[in-house]
Amino acid sequence: MKRIGLVQGALRLDTGTSIEPFGDRVGAVPVGNGTLQSWQEGVLASLGIPLLERAPASGPYLLFTDRTFFSADAVRRLVAAGPGRLHIDDADWWSLTGPLQEVPGPGIYELALHPGGSPTFEGLPARAVPHGLEDMPLPRVHPAFQHAMGKIRIGPCLAQQVHHWSHILRVNQLAMAATVHEAKRDYEGSPWWRKTGIVLAILARARGASPDKIGRALCRVGKGARIHPTAVVELSEIGDDVEIGAHAVVRASVLGKGCKVDDHATVQMSVMADGATVSRYGFLHHSVCWPNAFVSTGGGFQLCVFGRDSFVAWGATILDLSFGEPAPVWHQGARVSSGAWLLGAAIGHDARLGNGVRVNYGATVPNGAFLVADPEPLFRHWGNEPLVPGSPMIVRGGKAAPIRARTQSAPAPGGDGLAGVGPGPGGRRGEAGG
């Protein structure tokens, strides 16, 4: 790949940033089919820019930090604009992506074309670039969701600082968008004969021109992947040895090596790192799984990050919609606004969520935590309450108990026959006993 401009190379600064609750260095967070670090290196390699170990003595070079996501097009536009820090000067973009980022000004990122010399951002001007961002059409939603739907800006020039677990969600969505834009750019810049060959190859793989067949043909499927004939798989990257079960749905997602999407499960706009699993009837939407995470069927999981080797049992629920203020989150020891009305939760490495556990939006479950539901309403044994056929019972203290204490005499005039309370087996009125 021919190197762009006169850039000698790129130098990455280590900020020592780690992302809670996971504790991993920021460069290790999952992005696409790799990590943030591998994404950065892949972008630079695609542009023919070598990664440097030290700043060159003279001449321009790219300077960025380990917590900066950027698209290839952002680098191209910055180099074309000249020395300075990347500045995406768009108020709607910053309103959408800005919360919890630590930057010197809205839309100013830790990515710069340095004119040469000491590797620092100090003294470098903000360099506004022609970003090409546009509003995406918003999906039709129920009025109850309308307050949570702001403008969605997207385009080829993309960047984001990663300071919080919620940013992991966003950079993975940006990575998908950047991949699509690069493919579009490559196609549009090709000669007519290559364009014709690309279209014919897609139609041949699709064996038809229907949108669903073309969506399937646009997938990249790795070696040894097993996809059931009844599964719907569209516009996705499927790694080696992936297993997708009967009637499963995988759309616009990235599945790493050895992932499993079980029968009837749905994965949409999500990233599953190597070995992650979504079990039968599970639902994963706009979410990210670290390696070997296991997500069972629950209330539907949206905008969540599941840590390495985490486990979510059947019947757990993570809320994701705030009807009042934007979802609050913990950041740097304080409870602050996330800026988003739609946000799930972060489940730490090796954490376990049992059946019936309910997690609020914006919550953080620490690494190694083991959460189970309150056992009070869980039936464990019948107890001493007499069994009356046809009489409904509830669970109280793990044992059967009448919904209301039963009467032992005729109801008083005007009564409903349930108000009188006779002595229970424990000898005191109204107690279930045992």
The coarse silhouette is: globular
Amount of beta strand? 15-25%
Domain module tally: 3
In terms of per-residue confidence, which ranges show pLDDT below 50 for 5 or more consecutive residues? 407-434
The side-by-side strand order for the widest beta sheet comes to 13-16-19-22-25-28-33-36
What structural category arises from helix and sheet content?
A: alpha/beta
Mean model confidence by pLDDT: 87
Distance between the termini: 78 Å
Q: How many DSSP helices?
A: 6
Helix content: 10-25%
Largest sheet: 8 strands, parallel
Radius of gyration: 27 Å
What this model shows, in words?
With 434 residues, the chain is α/β, with parallel strands linked by helices. The chain has 3 domains: 10-185, no CATH class; 219-371, 3 Solenoid (UDP N-Acetylglucosamine Acyltransferase, domain 1); 379-434, no CATH class. The protein has an 8-stranded parallel sheet with strand order 13-16-19-22-25-28-33-36.
Summarize this, please?
The protein is of the alpha/beta class and 434 residues long.
Topology:
Elements: E1 10-13, E2 30-31, E3 34-35, H1 36-46, E4 51-52, E5 61-65, E6 68-70, H2 72-81, E7 84-87, H3 91-97, E8 108-114, E9 126-128, E10 134-135, E11 153-154, E12 159-161, H4 165-188, H5 192-206, H6 211-217, E13 220-221, E14 226-227, E15 232-234, E16 237-238, E17 243-244, E18 249-251, E19 254-255, E20 260-261, E21 266-268, E22 271-272, E23 277-278, E24 283-285, E25 288-289, E26 294-295, E27 301-302, E28 305-306, E29 311-312, E30 317-318, E31 328-331, E32 334-337, E33 346-347, E34 352-353, E35 358-359, E36 364-365, E37 370-371, E38 393-396, E39 399-402
Parallel strand pairs: 1-4, 1-5, 7-9, 13-16, 14-17, 15-18, 16-19, 17-20, 18-21, 19-22, 20-23, 21-24, 22-25, 23-26, 24-27, 25-28, 26-29, 28-33, 29-34, 30-35, 33-36, 34-37
Antiparallel strand pairs: 2-3, 5-8, 6-12, 7-8, 10-11, 31-32, 38-39
Helix pairs in contact: 5-6
